[in-house]
Amino acid sequence: MLARASAAGSASSNGSQEAIQCSLKLAAVRAAEQQQAIPLFADAFSAALVAAGSDGSSSSSSSSSSSSSGGTDAAAAQLDALATRFLDEQLLKAEYNQVVLVGDAFDTRPFRLPWPEGTILFCVAPAEAHQQAKEAFKAQGARVPRGCLLCRVPAQLLPDDGTASFAAALERAGFRGDRLSVWVMQGISCLGLGLPALGALLADTCNLAAFDSLVAGLLPPMDRRGLDNLLASFGLLGAGVDFGPQTDWGRWQVELALDPAGVRPWLFVAQQKRLSLREMDIYEQHVAAAAEDGEDFEGNFS
Question: Which parts of the chain have pLDDT scores under 50?
């Protein structure tokens, strides 16, 4: 029993470290972007995050590799930078006051984007990554906009058995499954998630997100058919996004393009077309109440 518990703790720690390394790689991409003549986005925090992470771990090689000038690393860095800009725009266009950021405890969006008052931001990531991120952001004096709230939700994203769930923790943090929300998944594409673990993440997302909520992100490598099937199986109406003349913000480099027909990380945007579990509960309560009153409930629900 002790051996099993020890193994589970070791797996949890390893998963947290992988998540931290992925977050630092993303931070390095965002920091490098600030050196461009016209950055895709403004980020005053990521350079210090990378420096703080490199001081206390062996992440320097990981974070520097994402800004490498050649081969696969350069293509991945290009995709991460463009994906960050694209996902920023999806978040701000949605105008929902529940925002869920899944995967990256070092995500700077809570501090750098102009959130309207009343926005609640939930960041879902491993506990160890949250602790390191909180210390790094505190050292920089980072604050969310006035009238907004950031809730950090601890979750193990890389379980051995693929059965991890963050749903209960997110609801305890105050998330409402009967209200619209916008979700972004960035920081999970480099975790090496298998289909069971990825399915567990999407299952939690779709069980919690109210009908017509927006879900977007960058998913681990798969082919386009696999992506389409995955989204459809969870009731998400959407598709993968390819960058080109209409979505490159003047920064597209054709020689670094990923094969659209091959196995590759996929940026996607989709809309939830199922009721959340909370909405289903409310619906069943309405049906039961109507039955008790002898009314003919026609199934209209909004």
Answer: 1-11, 58-71
d(CA 296, CA 289): 11
Can you give the pLDDT at residue 151?
98
Residue 301 identity = F
The three state secondary structure string of the chain is CHHHHHHHHHHHHHHHHHHHHHHHHHHHHHHHHCCCCCCCCCCCCHHHHHHHHHHHCCCHHHHHHCCCCCHHHHHHHHHHHHHHHHHHHHHHHHCCCEEEEECCCCCCHHHHCCCCCCCEEEEEECHHHHHHHHHHHHHHCCCCCCCCEEEEEECCCCCCCCCCCCHHHHHHCCCCCCCCCEEEECCCCCCCCCHHHHHHHHHHHHHHCCCCCEEEEEEEEECHHHHHHHHHHCCEEEEEECCCCCCCCCCCCHHHCCCCCCCEEEEEEEEECCCCHHHHHHHHHHHHHHHHCCCCCCCCCC
Q: How many CB atoms lie within 10 A of CB 212?
A: 12
Spatial neighbors of 32 by CB under 8 A, at least 6 apart, are 67, 77, 81
Q: Which of 36, 20, 28 is nearest to 65 (CA)?
A: 28
The torsion of the CA quartet 178, 194, 85, 239, rounded to 10 degrees, works out to -70
pLDDT in tens, 225-250: 999 999 999 999 999 988 776 678 88
pLDDT given for residue 72 in this prediction? 60
**What's the first-to-final CA gap in the chain, in angstroms?**
49
Rounded Cα gap, residues 21 and 300, in angstroms? 48
